[in-house]
Amino acid sequence: MPRTIGSGKRYHLITLGCAKNVVDSAGMAQLLEEAGYESVDRPARADVLIVNTCGFIEAARQESLRALRELAARKKKGQLLIAAGCLAQRWGARLVEEVPGIDGVIGTRRWMDILEFIEGLRGRIVPEPLFHIPEDGPIHREERGVLRAAVQGVSAYLKIADGCRRPCAFCAIPLIKGPAVSRPPEVIWAEARRLVDQGVRELILIAQDTTDYGHDLGMRDGLPVLIEGLVQQVPEVKWIRVMYAYPGAVSDRLIETMARYPQVAHYLDLPLQHGHPAVLRRMRRPANIEWVYRTIEKLRKAMPDIAIRTTFIVGYPGETEEEFEALLRFIQDLEFDRVGCFTYSYEPETPSARQPGHLPEEVKRERYERLMAAQQPISLRKNQALVGKTLEVLIEGVGDGLSVGRTYRDAPEIDGLVLVEGEWPVGQFLPVRITGAMTYDLTGVVEASPSIREQTSSPIPLITSGNFGLAL
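The chain above was modelled as a monomer; its predicted structure follows.
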């Protein structure tokens, strides 16, 4: 006889990791709700518990394990606990060994099978965990009409591709996601139209490597082609933001496209990972530092107001003090607007794990602190240069007589904020005169004419894409 398992249709979905995971969770939520499932905020009320895990680095894996263990410890009779996403794909059966109480494991490449997977769990004869983690499963070939976007307010992360073909020695993403697979441009354009018709004003293009978009489709310089189509299809969109560009792949055509169209935010996320060629070669990353200098110069010449964000890894195996000092000089030379920093994370299945010269954690942490200390005065100077200028600010929250928003210079979750005097309607883009600067954030006042006050007399309703937890 089949094991007695509840057949209710209430689910609780927790999302961990990056914006790309948020989009996958939104896809699962859409499929569940179209099948009559209801999202609930409290795990105790749910029939199905799903954790969309992150498995990129050790800290993310531990966060995923904590979430799963907490749900497993409190799981009630008849509830199903499903591990989905990157750590599920990477660990498979090991995840069940680490967290007794997991009923099923579904990998990141087959999130679209979530409904059939739940039915399979409920129909089990033997109460053993089920696994659905094919290594060669298609990505974006069977999306079942799901909108591949996650909407937050009037902004939306729009996934244009998944997987990666880059050989970075420290990165497990190709092991988890597989090779790069681009979504057809006409599908993306149609989804953008649908999002804008629903009230979205900012489109954030995401993939493991946006600048590789279209390579597998036979497109040359596919990202600018995609952007040009977006501008034509949704000319009323306010900001089109490009994330996760790859060094060496920022083409002249991409720069020219970004500069030509006012809808494209003068913002580029370009993770460089290091500034010393020897370290970059060990990372199996592009090591032509001169290319970086030339490209940053081109970007700033074409768009003098561009905000350039990058990330670095410190404490990579074999990183000498001299190489780290070169990274500090690199940062001071190029004066990036936004800098994120990570200490190297040991990843057992990656080539970097076999490289000699792994550094103690205290050395990695000390270098992290020195790098961030070097960037802080640069960031402060950049912000101070904005004082007295008027920038458009997207209002995203209000309370206690203040509003919180972002400029085109700020991507959600990872960059700075603008604290605006007064409570203004969420979802509006307002002209804000910058009155103060901090290391990462700004303060300002709305330059409000009577017409602006009339336009913002009633708040714009927020658009949501499902009730799932978010940790970025």
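The chain is about 35% helix and 25% strand.
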